[in-house]
């Protein structure tokens, strides 16, 4: 017969994560930069970004950044093919919006 004794040292911390500010539909002019942003309820976590359901690689014209609770996707030199549905996802949370690229 065996017995196990578990001692908890310290405090157990649990925080519910929510989207405090969702992405908003936006448009940008071809050749310019565009930024999509949303805000989570906890700071300094990195979300994943998707376009039309496919995960974006952060290279070339796409850059992501996190500042405190705000998640940002920066798209430089906007092109017509950048139009689509963008999603910011952290764990089970998702926020989506449409982006349109307008000709000058």
UniProtKB/TrEMBL annotation:
Alphabetized InterPro entries for the sequence: Ig-like_dom, Ig-like_dom_sf, Ig-like_fold, Ig_I-set, Ig_sub, Ig_sub2, Obscurin/Obscurin-like_Reg
GO CC annotations, alphabetized: cytoplasm; nucleus
Residue intervals passing through the bilayer: none
Domain of life: Eukaryota
SUPFAM superfamilies: Immunoglobulin (SSF48726)
Keyword entries, A-Z: Cytoplasm, Disulfide bond, Immunoglobulin domain, Nucleus, Phosphoprotein, Repeat
Localisation: Cytoplasm; Nucleus
Any Pfam family hit: I-set
Annotated Ig-like domain residues: 14-104
Gene3D superfamilies, sorted: Immunoglobulins
PROSITE patterns: IG_LIKE
Keyword Chloroplast appears in the UniProt entry: no
Family: Belongs to the protein kinase superfamily. CAMK Ser/Thr protein kinase family.
Name under which the protein is recorded: Ig-like domain-containing protein
Organism of this sequence: Mola mola
């Amino acid at each position: 017969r065996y017995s196990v004794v578990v001692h908890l040292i310290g405090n157990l911390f649990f925080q519910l994560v929510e989207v405090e500010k969702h992405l908003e539909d936006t448009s940008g002019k071809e050749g310019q930069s565009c930024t999509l942003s949303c805000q989570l309820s906890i700071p300094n976590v990195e979300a994943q970004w998707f376009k039309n359901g496919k995960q974006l690689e952060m290279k070339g014209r796409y850059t992501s950044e996190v500042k405190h609770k705000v998640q940002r996707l920066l798209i430089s030199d906007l092109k017509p093919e950048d139009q689509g549905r963008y999603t910011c996802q952290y764990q089970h949370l998702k926020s989506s919006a449409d982006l349109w690229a307008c000709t000058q």
